[in-house]
Amino acid sequence: MRCSILSLLMVFVGVAGADSWVFRHVAVVSPHEGVVRADQTVVVSDGRIAAVGLDGSVAIPADAGTIEAKGHYLIPGLAEMHAHIPPMSNPEYLDEVLTLYLSQGVTTARGMLGEPGHLKLRDEIARGERLGPRIYTSGPSLN
Description:
Blueprint lengths: L4 H11 L4 E11 L4 E11 L2 E7 L10 E4 L4 E2 L3 E6 L7 H13 L2 E6 L4 H11 L7 E3 L7
Parallel strand pairs: 1-4, 1-5, 6-7, 7-8
Antiparallel strand pairs: 1-2, 2-3
């Protein structure tokens, strides 16, 4: 499976421990403007996008990790609005699903059949203790 640049961003920023990461020569998709900007440099510091601009026009922190991204695209995070987040009783499968979301660029998931453990899961992800998309969850199914 080929990971998206966005997924790599999340993994590097969330796990690798570097304070700053730079994506060089990446094409940035801007749905708001309806354009794709080629040959951009994107600087991510402390988990946030700090600068975007034509390659060579953006200051790069000296200690930043660099990802050469020529031929790749950086997109806004995708939202899965009808997710079925696995139960907490199957932690291996749960982690597989959360990893799959991230690897495909899904940074937000709205769970449709919640359980009390999903509240703990949501908080662990928000604190950076576990990798996964931002979770919005519901209560258990009412039938």
